[in-house]
């Protein structure tokens, strides 16, 4: 499939501990085509656990969203799909790639890669419960000796999956090493359903490169968006400047530049914009959870927002003691004054 990299969709991936209602809203405002919830336990959803309901909260800013479920039992996931559909997502995704030991032990996430037929059974059970499209997110295989993404994708496609996202690493790799974009290319060429790529997309130019190099239909961005929801607006800026060359695997920073690429791919991130966005993010979090809890949970986001900023280490040392928004505000003011 020949996909125009300037028109392809770019999504916020389901990121445990990060892609909550507030961060999704921020990314949606920045231009993400679609944002996925944190992965939701099918068992917990059926039991009506309060924390699970919070994972499914959606701000009015986020006009539409996607829900990701995890589990190992087709019947349980079918019931969870019925409930998830009542939240009106545009797609319900099955997690087949999480490498976290706790998830693996339950037979969910990447553990499903060891039994591709089970993935097909689950997809079919989910699909039979709703008209909402069912998608899956998987890895290339359990480990380097069991690369089976093509087999898994074929089984899922036969079961009625609507789209497939491939993270170009094995379960054994976790998030180490380099993502295998060639695998994404091969899958894109050999399946009839849309394929989204994931892995090592740390900036807008890398997102464009993935489309160009793999021919995938869209890009799911995870770590590249943490502390950097601006990546989605950067993608739009880069798409507008069609003469710019895309480049791959460059870590994010305050200044996104390279001596080997045209000036049109140089993005300056105003510290004032970082401060405004981080504050809005925190304020939105407080809309949904109690202030002290929101401020404690925001510490990890603050650390990510200030990565690469001059004096960032000192700011982060202060942030880990903040438990109210008023304690954070002086830190945001310091950020805004940088380079003023």
What is the CATH superfamily of the largest domain? Aldolase class I
Number of strands: 11
Structural domain count: 2
| CATH architecture label of the largest domain | Alpha-Beta Barrel
Q: Using only CA atoms, what is the Rg?
A: 20 Å
Average predicted local confidence, pLDDT:
89
CATH class descriptor name of the largest domain = Alpha Beta
Strand order of the largest sheet: 2-1-9-8-7-6-5-4-3
Structural class: alpha/beta
What characteristic shape results from the CA principal axes? globular
* Helix share, percent: 40-55%
- What's the CATH topology label of the largest domain? TIM Barrel
Distance between the termini: 47 Å
Q: Uncertain spans, ≥5 residues at pLDDT below 50?
A: 242-266
Q: What count of helical segments does DSSP give?
A: 14
Tell me about the largest β-sheet. 9 strands, parallel
SSE order:
EHEEHHEHEHHEHEHEHEHEEHHHH
* Beta-strand percent range: 5-15%
What is this structure, in a nutshell?
With 340 residues, this protein is of the alpha/beta class.
Characteristics of this structure?
12% strand, nine-stranded parallel β-sheet, TIM Barrel, 2 domains, alpha/beta, two-stranded antiparallel sheet, globular, 340 residues
């Amino acid at each position: 499939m020949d996909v125009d990299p300037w028109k392809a969709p770019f999504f916020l991936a389901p990121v445990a501990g990060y892609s909550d209602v507030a961060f999704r809203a921020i990314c949606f405002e920045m231009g993400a085509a679609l944002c996925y919830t944190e992965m939701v336990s099918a068992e917990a959803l059926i039991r009506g656990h309060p924390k699970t309901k919070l994972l499914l909260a959606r701000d009015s800013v986020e006009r539409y969203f996607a829900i990701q479920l995890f589990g190992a039992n087709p019947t349980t996931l079918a019931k969870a799909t019925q409930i998830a559909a009542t939240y009106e997502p545009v797609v319900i995704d099955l997690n087949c790639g999480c490498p976290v030991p706790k998830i693996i032990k339950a037979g969910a996430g990447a553990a499903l890669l060891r039994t591709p037929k089970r993935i097909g059974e689950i997809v079919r059970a989910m699909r039979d419960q709703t008209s909402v499209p069912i998608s899956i997110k998987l890895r290339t295989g359990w480990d380097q000796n069991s690369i089976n993404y093509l087999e898994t994708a074929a089984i899922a496609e036969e079961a009625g999956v609507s789209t497939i996202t491939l993270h170009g690493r094995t379960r054994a790799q976790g998030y180490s090493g380099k993502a295998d974009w060639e695998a994404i290319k091969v899958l894109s060429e050999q399946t009839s359903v849309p394929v989204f790529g994931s892995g090592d997309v740390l900036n807008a130019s890398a997102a464009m490169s993935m489309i160009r190099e793999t021919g995938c239909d869209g890009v799911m961005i995870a770590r590249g968006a943490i502390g950097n929801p601006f990546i989605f607006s950067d993608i739009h800026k880069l798409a507008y400047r069609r003469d710019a060359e895309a480049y791959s695997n460059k870590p994010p920073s305050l200044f996104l530049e390279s001596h080997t690429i045209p000036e049109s791919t140089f993005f300056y991130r105003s510290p004032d914009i970082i401060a405004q966005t981080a504050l809005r993010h925190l304020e939105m979090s407080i809309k949904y959870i109690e202030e002290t809890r929101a401020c404690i949970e925001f510490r990890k986001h603050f650390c990510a927002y200030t990565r690469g900023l001059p004096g960032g280490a000192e700011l982060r040392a202060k942030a880990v003691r903040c438990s109210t928004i008023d304690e954070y505000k002086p830190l945001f003011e310091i950020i805004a004054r940088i380079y003023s």
